[in-house]
Amino acid sequence: MLSYEIYKRLDYYGCVYLCGTQPQLAMDWRYWARFFTLLYEKVQAKNTGPPAINRKQPRRVHENIWCLYRSKDKFSDLKITVDRITKKGTTKVVKGKPMRIWGEGKRKWRVGVGYPTSVFYGKKVDKNSPEYVGHPTQKPEKLIEELILMATDEGDWIFDPFAGSGTVSTVARRLGRNSIAVEIEDKWIPMIEKRIQVEKTRTSITDFISEDMSD
Ligand SMILES: C[S@@+](CC[C@H](N)C(=O)[O-])C[C@H]1O[C@@H](n2cnc3c(N)ncnc32)[C@H](O)[C@@H]1O
Predict the structure, then answer these.
(1) What is the 50 CA–ligand 1 centroid distance (Å)?
(2) pLDDT band with cut points at 50, 70 and 90 for residue 146
(3) Does residue 72 belong to any structural domain of this protein?
(4) Per-residue pLDDT averaged across 15-36, rounded?
């Protein structure tokens, strides 16, 4: 059983994110419930979705993400001491105290403290999005960033068995996490490799921590 195989290999304090739609996720839960504890649900609100299946249920414009923990006795705290630094639309994340940085009378940097909420309102990634690389079900980097930050520390390992365009590995690398990605379709592999290569050439997040911020 997949849930048992993952249970055997996962770090004691590790977690699993199950992404999907209802009622499938709830139906799958019976396999996971034997080994895992459901800690919380996060909802990805989308501005679009497929046509209504029938007239007995509302048209679905969201996805559910369930966070399952392996250990039943202890959950680690969500990583809440996170500053977001946005410069020209690029998100950089550093750990530290809440802080605002203003540059030369103009607001060059925008810094906010993110305590995660249960709903992600970011736009669905489509061909009009700057981060779009061509995969039809590409996840928003910001959503993946939140999920990674909530559950892992720098240096931790993340396994993404349905890599698609490689968003998880791309963001994992940006945040100093290690990752292993698996993708069944050959055509997406070059896309994943390219994203990782581009990520490698980006400025390290430590370059964004000025002396002012490090104390
Ligand atoms: C929903 S997409 C993932 C999108 C990804 N999170 C992203 O942001 O690009 C699911 C991917 O899983 C792949 N997939 C489906 N079944 C698989 C399997 N058994 N093993 C590995 N990959 C699989 C599909 O080819 C598809 O690219």
Answers:
(1) 19
(2) confident
(3) yes
(4) 93
Quick one: pLDDT band at residue 145, thresholds 50, 70, 90?
confident
Query: Is residue 37, in this structure, part of any structural domain at all?
Result: yes
> Which atom from ligand 1 is nearest to the alpha carbon of 19?
1
Q: In sequence order, what are the residues at sequence separation of 6 or more whose Cβ sits closer than 8 angstroms to the Cβ of residue 170?
A: 141, 195, 196, 199
| For residues 41-53, average pLDDT | 87
Q: CA-to-CA distance for 32 and 25, rounded, in angstroms?
A: 10
For residue 148, with 0-12 CB atoms within 10 Å meaning exposed, 13-18 middle and 19 or more buried, which class applies?
buried
The residue nearest atom 17 of ligand 1, judged by CA position, is 184
Please tell me the distance between residue 163's alpha carbon and the centre of ligand 1 in angstroms.
Answer: 5
DSSP β-ladder status, 178-181 and 157-160: parallel
Print the domain residue range for 2.
Answer: 1-76
pLDDT at 179: 97
pLDDT of residue 52: 83
CB 114 within 8 A of CB 108: no
Domain contains 111: no
For residue 72 the two structure tokens come to 């039943």
pLDDT value, residue 76: 58
Establish if 18 belongs to a structural domain. Answer: yes
ipTM (interface pTM): 0.99
Domain count, the chain: 1
Nearest CA to ligand 1 atom 1: 137
